[in-house]
Amino acid sequence: MTVRKLTKDLFYTGVNDRRIELFENAYPVANGVSYNSYVLLDEKAVLLDTADGAYTNKYLENVRKVLAGRTADYLVVSHMEPDHSASIRAVMDAYPELKLICNAKSKGMLENFFGDISSRAVVVSDGEEFSTGRHTLKFVFAPMVHWPEVMLTLDLTDNVLFSADAFGSFGAIDGTLYSDEIDFDAYLPEARRYYTNIVGKYGAQVKAVLKKLAGATPALVCPLHGVIWRNNFDKIVEKYSLWADYEPEEVGVVIAYGSVYGNTADAAETLAAILADKGVTNIRVYDVAKTHYSYLVAEAFRASNLVFCSVTTNMYLYSAMEKLLDELTKHGIKKRTVSLIQNGTWAPAAGARMKEIVSAWKDSFVCGELLTLTSRLKDAQDKAMDDLAEAIKLSTARHEPEAPAPERKPVDPNGNALFKLTYGLFVLSAKARDKDNGCIVNTVQQVADGKIAVAVNKKNFTCEMLMQSDDFNASVLSESATFETFRHFGFQSGRDADKFSKDAPRMKNGVAYVESGVNAVISGKIV
Predict the structure, then answer these.
(1) Largest CB tally within 10 Å, which of 185, 215, 252, 355?
(2) pLDDT computed for residue 469 by the predictor
């Protein structure tokens, strides 16, 4: 790729790799990848990252073209992964006076790769600023996005952010260098696959970096892979915010199946058809043996509902299904609705293993009954398949945007509010031993002036807590209550889950209550 001028003083010196088949020897990249690097010409000439070792000569050729006879004074080391750092030794040899701007962690890694560099290292700290003449560079540490030494650099003078691996993408650059000159929707799938597989596990660390950058509106964002973000940076930040929180990007159903002779595949295709007939949209079906897991990890981050269908092999999972579920677990997937189908001619066992794995995914739950096939889907299972599809359809509602919380109103000053209680659904909440809990009940009614009766199952954990503490709240659920509220308070036990966060809103009695999807909260004491 030819050298490109980005600003008055900034140049792109990156290279395309269209020969590579597996990025990090793991992820298919049919369209290659770019290794981005930059040169800032000021009173001091500053290089920002290098290139993969296979492209050292081309990279140095680009740098020499920009420097036009000048020497390079500094090299900013954003990230030590060899696709960006492998050419550092060649740069040091080409420019003997060059200093390496790095942090303490990257200095250690530099010495792992290249030996003692103490005499050439300029070690900087988080938030430190560095003058190159007209330009001032500020260094922003971004540990575990996605190695512990990662460092972003902000050019305060021209408002340019060098973002290391953040905001990058698979795919070589096809001439068009800027994000506002490409089709964002067409670019997004490979940017998503890049994030979810390379950085996806480190959502908390990504959120920390986004918080550091909050309010920043850089004119250019220059990643180490993919296009440079210009004018529409907010679009990719919005996606990163969702991915970092593991929130589904879209309401949709991904069906992934592992099939040997086609019978499990047939069940997956049948489910997709029934869902479509029920009005469910955004359905995608994948064969896990044919589709590389990296694409399916990205799809799992995108969609709200996941369906896994696996034949039983060796009394275990189909191997490609096992790989997929293992990768999803390693990448920290959570907040998903999961449904399961298993198959086995004489001893179906895949379902139990799949359920064991997905049950460990935080804030996720299994929707519908496990559908078991013995060899193939039978006509007698039509209702069971329809019931599963109906459960999936209903569960998609939990991922729809929540309705605005109703306006809070004061307690009826005339004392008539309790007369308006009718049959409905309520979240009964209590507090005992510094633990909050709540459950769904359907009976809260007035029995005397200022007194109400609440019906709750004696075996319920909330009932046990009320035997220890007299105070309670009853949150009156409205029509705007979402399926997530019913799932959260009704489909799991407080013995196993924390149903209220520590910062949950509380009434004067100190008991937590539900704030969203309610039209009233009643505080009471057992008498």
Answers:
(1) 252
(2) 82
Distance between CA atoms of residues 251 and 147, nearest Å: 31
Reference 470, options 431, 513, 521; nearest CA is 431
Q: Is 354 helix (H, G, I), strand (E, B) or coil?
A: helix
- pLDDT of 1 > 60? The answer is no
Closest by CA to 44, choosing from 112, 110, 97, is: 97
SS (H, E, C) 427-470: EEEEEECCEEEEEEECCEEEEECCEEEECCCCCCHHHHHHCCCC
In angstroms, the CA 98 to CA 91 distance is 8
- Residue 181, C-beta contacts closer than 8 angstroms, at least 6 positions apart: none
Token pair listed for 469: 């503490």
Tokens 């560079």: give the residue. 137
Nearest to 35 by CA among 98, 97, 88, 103: 88
Question: Beta strands 45-48 and 4-5: pairing type?
Answer: unpaired
Cβ contact 320:288 at 8 Å? yes
Question: What tokens were used for 502?
Answer: 């520590």
Those residues whose C-beta lies under 8 Å from the C-beta of residue 50, and which sit 6 or more positions away, are 37, 56, 59, 75, 84, 85, 86, 87, 88, 90, 91
Q: How far apart are CA 102 and CA 149, in angstroms?
A: 9
Distance of CA 24 to the CA centre of its chain: 21
- For 34-47, the pLDDT digits (tens) are 999 999 999 999 99
Give DSSP secondary structure letters for 190-258: HHHHHIIIIIGGGHHHHHHHHHHTTT---SEEE-SSSPBB-S-HHHHHHHHHHHHTT--SEEEEEEEEE
Calculate ∠ Cα 222-223-227, nearest 5°.
Answer: 80
Tokens 């196993």 appear where?
A: 496
Extract the tokens encoding 450.
């200022």
Q: What is the pLDDT of residues 108-161, one digit of tens each?
A: 999 999 999 999 999 999 999 999 999 999 999 999 998 999 999 999 999 999
- Count of CB atoms situated within 10 Å of the CB of 209: 23
Half-sphere exposure of residue 21: CA atoms within 13 angstroms, side-chain side: 1
Query: Residue 522 in contact with residue 471, Cβ under 8 Å?
Result: no
The predicted model gives 182-203 an average pLDDT of: 96
Reduced to 3 states (helix: H, G, I; strand: E, B; else coil), residue 11 is strand
Strand order in the sheet with 129-131: 129-131, 136-141, 151-155, 160-162, 220-222
Amino acid 467: pLDDT:
79
> CA end-to-end span of the chain, whole Å?
79
- Determine if the pTM surpasses 0.70: yes
- pLDDT interval class at 289 (50, 70, 90): very high
